[in-house]
C-alpha cells in the first residue's frame, strides 16, 4: 500500500512529503509532528540512532494516524524485521541493505508501506523493481550525512513518488528540491547537533525550509 500522504496545501496541490529519521526521544517526535512532518523513522539497524522495540513502540504511540511511522532496517533477517516492526507497531518498513524482491514480497501485508532505500552510485534504480511502494534515493552510506550529486542524475525511472535523502539540511533542502524535484525528502544528520542527537530547532527549520521550497 502506498502511503497516501493525505496532507494537501490550501490550493489542493500535493505537499512535499517530509520524513524525519532516527528519532529516539519524545520531545523530538513531538517537535517533528508539530512542525508538520509526514513520516517519522525509528532506526533498528546497527547505528548510534538505534532504538529497541519498546522505545519505538512508546514513541510511535505519540504519533497521530496521518503521520507514517517507519522502522528502518539494513540486512536483517525478514523474520526479525517483521518481529520488530510488529512489536513497535510501525506502519512503514524501510530497507537499506541488500534485500531482494523476495524479501519485499515476504514483508508485504495489508496496510504496510514498503520503502526501498538505495544509492544511485552504480546505476539509476527503477521504481517498482522490488515491489516497493516508495523508492528512497540516498547517499552510499545511509545516515552518514554525506551528500551526493543529485544534479547529474536522471530521475525518470524513479517514478512519481520518490524520496531524496543524503546529507540534506535546513540550508540545502530548498535548493535540492528545486533541482531534483523529488516527491519527498528524508533527513537525519542534518537535524542533529551531534551524531545521533537531534536538535528540535533544526527539525522545525528543516520542515519549514522543505515546505517552502515549492
Ligand atoms: O541512521 C543510521 O545510522 C542508519 C543506519 C543504517 C541504515 C539506515 C540509517 N539511516 C537512514 C536515514 O537516516 C535516512 O533514511 C537517510 O539515510 C538520510 O540520512 P542523512 O544523510 O543522515 O540525512
From TrEMBL:
CDD domains cross-referenced by the UniProt entry: PRAI
Reaction(s) the record says it catalyses: N-(5-phospho-beta-D-ribosyl)anthranilate = 1-(2-carboxyphenylamino)-1-deoxy-D-ribulose 5-phosphate
EC number(s) on file: 5.3.1.24
Domain N-(5'phosphoribosyl) anthranilate isomerase (PRAI): 18-208
One Pfam family here: PRAI
Keyword NADP included in the entry's annotation: no
Keywords: Amino-acid biosynthesis, Aromatic amino acid biosynthesis, Isomerase, Tryptophan biosynthesis
Origin: domain of life: Bacteria
Membrane-traversing stretches: none
GO molecular function: isomerase activity
Pathway: Amino-acid biosynthesis; L-tryptophan biosynthesis; L-tryptophan from chorismate: step 3/5
Keyword Zinc-finger set for record: no
Top-level enzyme category: isomerase
InterPro entries per record: Aldolase_TIM, PRAI_dom, RibuloseP-bd_barrel, TrpF_fam
Entry's family note: Belongs to the TrpF family.
PANTHER family the UniProt entry points to: N-(5'-PHOSPHORIBOSYL)ANTHRANILATE ISOMERASE
Name this polypeptide is given: N-(5'-phosphoribosyl)anthranilate isomerase
Gene encoding the protein: trpF
Amino acid at each position: 500500500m502506498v502511503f497516501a500522504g493525505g496532507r494537501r496545501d490550501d490550493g489542493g496541490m500535493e505537499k512535499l512529503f517530509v520524513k524525519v529519521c532516527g528519532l529516539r526521544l519524545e520531545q523530538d517526535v513531538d517537535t517533528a509532528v508539530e512542525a508538520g512532518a509526514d513520516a517519522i523513522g525509528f532506526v533498528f539497524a546497527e547505528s548510534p540512532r538505534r532504538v529497541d522495540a519498546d522505545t519505538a513502540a512508546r514513541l510511535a504511540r505519540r504519533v497521530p494516524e496521518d503521520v507514517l511511522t517507519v522502522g528502518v532496517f539494513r540486512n536483517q533477517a525478514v523474520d526479525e524485521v517483521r518481529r520488530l516492526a510488529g512489536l513497535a507497531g510501525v506502519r512503514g518498513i524501510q530497507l537499506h541493505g541488500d534485500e531482494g524482491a523476495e524479501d519485499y514480497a515476504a514483508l508485504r501485508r495489508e496496510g504496510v508501506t514498503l520503502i526501498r532505500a538505495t544509492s544511485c552510485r552504480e546505476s539509476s534504480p527503477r521504481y517498482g523493481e522490488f515491489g516497493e511502494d516508495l523508492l528512497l534515493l540516498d547517499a552510499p552510506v545511509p545516515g552518514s550525512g554525506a551528500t551526493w550529486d543529485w544534479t547529474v542524475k536522471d530521475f525518470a525511472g524513479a517514478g512519481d513518488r520518490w524520496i531524496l535523502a543524503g546529507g540534506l539540511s535546513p540550508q540545502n533542502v530548498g535548493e535540492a528540491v528545486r533541482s531534483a524535484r523529488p516527491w519527498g525528502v528524508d533527513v537525519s544528520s542534518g537535524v542533529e547537533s551531534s551524531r545521533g542527537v537531534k536538535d528540535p530547532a533544526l527539525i522545525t527549520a528543516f520542515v519549514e525550509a522543505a515546505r517552502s521550497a515549492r
